[in-house]
Amino acid sequence: MIILKLGGSVITRKDRDKPTLDPVNLDRIAQEIARSNVDELVIVHGAGSFGHPYASKFEIGSEITDEKEFFRKKRGFTLTQNAVQNLNHYVCNFLLKHGIPAIALPPSSFMVCENKRIKTANLEMVERYLEMGMVPVLHGDVVLDDNKNIQMAVVSGDQIITYLAENLKPERIILGSDVDGIYNRDPKAHPEAQLLPVVNSMDDLEFLEGARTVDVTGGMAGKLKELLDLAEIGTESEIINAGNAKIVECALKGEKVRGTLITKNV
Ligand code: ADP
Predict the structure, then answer these.
(1) Does the pLDDT value for residue 152 go beyond 60?
(2) Which label site among 87, 130, 161, 251 has the fewest CB atoms less than 10 Å from its CB?
(3) Atom 25 in ligand 1: which residue has the minimum CA distance?
(4) Cα separations (Å) of 212 from 7, 104, 224?
(5) Does 9 contact ligand 1 (Cβ within 6 A)?
């Protein structure tokens, strides 16, 4: 089984403050996934500009101070869920258009957090759809939180990847972003930044404070933290550029592509 993440930076316009799809990238990536003919595939996509504007405006995941705030946050929670579900609908539409048997599985309907970390999830449905030869499509979402002070949390696509990987034991984990992989510093701000073919510690990044994009779930630094946790239990992952043609297809087919391997085995 392969778990493939489609970064919000690739399938949406993350620089926009309202939900904006990147239909050109999405269509191309869906074709590439179809051509790769992977046997068992789970797709997780980020929320991008569909989730972040609402989640940050309503400060989902921050402490609920009074009844009024509780009411406001519930509104924000439902608006965020609706927006990311719209994105999920687009993603599934494009996958289906290219013949991929995509089945939407919104995490808000089967996952629960505790202190913003996934605590429980009924993965039986993911497994059953996989057994049927379908492709479950999950996404960064809002979920209920057992911490009574916050009650609602944002769960990133990256955190979902970690949870799925720990529980489903995939052969490979591939994360498609809008950069070639992890650099020693943010390549968008520093054109001279160097791509790191292998990363095994947070120390590999020279400027951690720069390793953040406008992202309620933590940008590249947040992503790397999740993936290093996975590496710690012996599960490797690869970050590749899904913004460039053919990269997702080649990676899924097992061909060597430019990117970063996150591993403890060095
Ligand atoms: P995605 O939406 O693809 O999951 P993010 O937007 O959260 O990914 O993170 C990717 C972004 O992180 C890149 O567009 C890049 O500008 C930024 N970034 C910051 N620091 C780094 C770094 N050291 N290496 C690579 N990318 C970085």
Answers:
(1) yes
(2) 130
(3) 182
(4) 14, 29, 11
(5) yes
| CB of 186 closer than 6 angstroms to any ligand 1 atom | yes
Check: pTM over 0.90? Answer yes or no. Answer: yes
What kind of fold does domain 2-262 have according to CATH?
Carbamate kinase (3.40.1160)
Enter the tokens of residue 249. Answer: 């297809």
Q: How far apart are CA 160 and CA 118, in angstroms?
A: 8
Domain residue spans in the chain? 2-262
pLDDT digits 0-9 by tens, 57-86: 999 999 999 999 999 999 999 999 999 999
Q: Is 220 close to ligand 1, i.e. is its CB under 6 Å away?
A: yes
Helix axes 157-168, 124-131, angle to 10 degrees: 70
| Higher pLDDT pick, 99 / 220 | 99
Whether 232 and 264 have beta carbons less than 8 Å apart is answered as yes
